[in-house]
Amino acid sequence: MAKITFITIENEEITVEGDSGNVMELAVANNVAGIDGDCGGVCSCATCHVHVDPAHVAKTGEASEIEQDMLELDDNANEYSRLCCQIQVSEQLDGVILRVAGDE
Ligand code: FES
Q: Domains in the chain and their CATH numbers?
């Protein structure tokens, strides 16, 4: 079981728990504002874009090459960007903080 905290664009903090699937699915199931998951998790929409808290990057690991290509199209991307459909929920994620990137 992993506890994952999302911080929305409006600075609302939502902590959810999960033990399977990917982080986007968990966010959508818990109505986290700003995470839409339009493509269903196949890394082709970027509506699940989050910025990993810099202190927690080791928990999520780095973006894959396909993910980075997708993120390059998003003006809001930075070195902490991940598409959260590409992050599997596991114990390793416990305590992670993810900021919804949104489209500013
Ligand atoms: S849900 Fe579409 S890229 Fe993650």
A: 2-100 (3.10.20.30)
